[in-house]
Amino acid sequence: MKLFMLFFVLLLFIGCHTKEATPLKEFKRVALVIGNEGYANNALSNPINDAIGVKETLEKIGFEVSLKTDVNLSEFYQALDEFKTKIIPKETIVFFYFAGHGNTIESNSEEYLMMTDQKEKVLVSIYRLYEFLNDAEARHNIVVIDACRNYQQKYLPTTQAKNDDYLRSARNARNFRGNFRANISEAKGKVKDEFVILDHNCSSYFPKSTIVSYATMHNQMAKDWSEYEMEHSPYTRQLMKHLDDEEIPIEEVFRRVRIGLIGETNRTQINLEENSLEKNVWLVPKKGQVAFAPPI
3-class SS at 40? Predict the structure, then answer.
C-alpha cells in the first residue's frame, strides 16, 4: 500500500512539472506607420528613416504594416480609412506610429500632429486618433508619437469658416493632393504662417485598452537625430532596439526605452506613457506559463 501511495505521489509530481502552458490566443496584428519630414518651412531629417526602421522591426515580430510618408491632411484621412478595413473588432492588436512635427497649442495636454500640407500649417489633434480607435474597437492599441510637445503660442487658429472649409475639402479631395491645395489657396488667399488649420473637433475619450507613448514629457522638444546614430531620433533608436525584446509586456518595453533615452540625452528628453491597457500585452509572447494575466 505504501509503495502504491509513493508511486501515485510521484506521478502527480511529474504531472505538475511537465504540464504544458495553455497557448496564448493569437490576434491579428496590424500597424500604421507615418513619417512626416517634408514640411514647407521647417523640414526634418529623420522621420522617414525612423518610420522605415519601425516598419521593419514590426514586420519581424509579425505585424502587417502600412507605411505612409509625408502625408497631408487628405492623405491622413485616407490612410485611416484604409487602415480601418484591416482591423477586426476585438480580434486585432493595433500599432500606430507617427514621427514628425508636433505641438500643443491651447493647453499643455492636447497633442497636435502636423501634416505636410505645403500652403497651410495643418495640425491634427491626438483626439482625432482617439476617435478613430474608439470606432475601430480593436482588442488592444499601442500608439507611439515621436514628436515635440512644446507649447506654441505663435500658432493662432484661422477663422472658423476657413477652418471648416479646409477640413471639408481635405475629406472630399482624397488622392488629389496638388489640386485640393491649389483650390483652397486660390479660393481663400495665402494664409500667414502664424495661422493654422486645426482638426480638433472630435471626442477626447481615451480609447479602451490603449497605451500611448510620447517621445517627450509635457512641454518638451523631441530631438530629430541621435548623437550615436545620425539617421534616427534618439527615441526611435531606443524603440527599435527594444520593440522585439523577448517575453516582456509592452509597458516594460517602454520602460527600457525610457532608461536608454535618459542615458542617451542626459535627461533632456524623457518619454511618457498614458495607459488604459486591461491585460498584459506581449509583442514577443511568453513561451510558457507566466504570473501575468495573458492578453485576452
Answer: coil
- For 80-123, the pLDDT digits (tens) are 999 999 999 999 999 999 999 999 886 667 899 999 999 899 99
CA distances from 58 to 121, 154, 169, 282 (A): 30, 37, 34, 13
* Residue among 117, 126, 130, 127 at smallest CA distance from 158: 117
3-state secondary structure of 180: helix
Chain centre distance of CA 209: 14
Instruction: Find out whether 76 and 166 touch, Cβ atoms under 8 Å.
Output: no
Give the mean pLDDT per block of 10 residues along the chain (296 residues): 48 44 68 97 94 98 98 96 97 98 80 94 94 96 96 84 90 43 33 67 88 94 92 97 96 98 96 95 74 48
Kindly write down the DSSP assignment for every residue of 256-291, as one continuous string.
HHHHHHHHHHTTS---EEEE--SS--BSS--SS--S
CA distance 53 to 138: 24
pTM (2 decimals)?
A: 0.83
Report d(CA 6, CA 3) in Å as an integer. Answer: 5
How distant, in Å, are the alpha carbons of 66, 130, 132, 269 from that of 204? 25, 7, 11, 26
Euclidean distance between CA atoms 247 and 255, whole angstroms = 14
Residue 274 near residue 206, CB atoms below 8 Å: yes
Concatenated DSSP letters of 49-117 = HHHHHHHHHHHHTT-EEEEEES--HHHHHHHHHHHHTTPPTTSEEEEEEEES-EEB-SSSS--EEE---
